[in-house]
Amino acid sequence: MITYKGYTGSFTFDEKENLFKGKVANSNYPISFQGKSIKEMKQTFYDSVDEYLQWCKKYDKIPERSSLDSTE
After folding, report:
1. Predicted confidence (pLDDT) per residue in 18-54, tens digit
2. Structural domains in the chain?
3. 46 with 39: CB under 8 angstroms?
4. Does residue 47 contact residue 41 with C-beta atoms inside 8 Å?
5. Taking phi first (over 0 means left), then psi (-120 to 50 degrees means alpha), and beta for anything else, what does residue 42 get?
């Protein structure tokens, strides 16, 4: 699991594609991320969450929070 700004993501490694793939847990909005390394995967997770938050702000939507994160 990985967390950022109150969002929790889970990921797996796809051996056929040699790629880490993940998505934000318990979100109705499809926030996904991937990378060829842990470092790249983490950065795309951070970028995906930031893009979602920017989208919410642009369209005056209240951001949905991952219910797995109890700190916020």
Report:
1. 999 999 988 888 899 999 999 999 999 999 999 999 9
2. 2-58 (3.30.160)
3. no
4. no
5. alpha
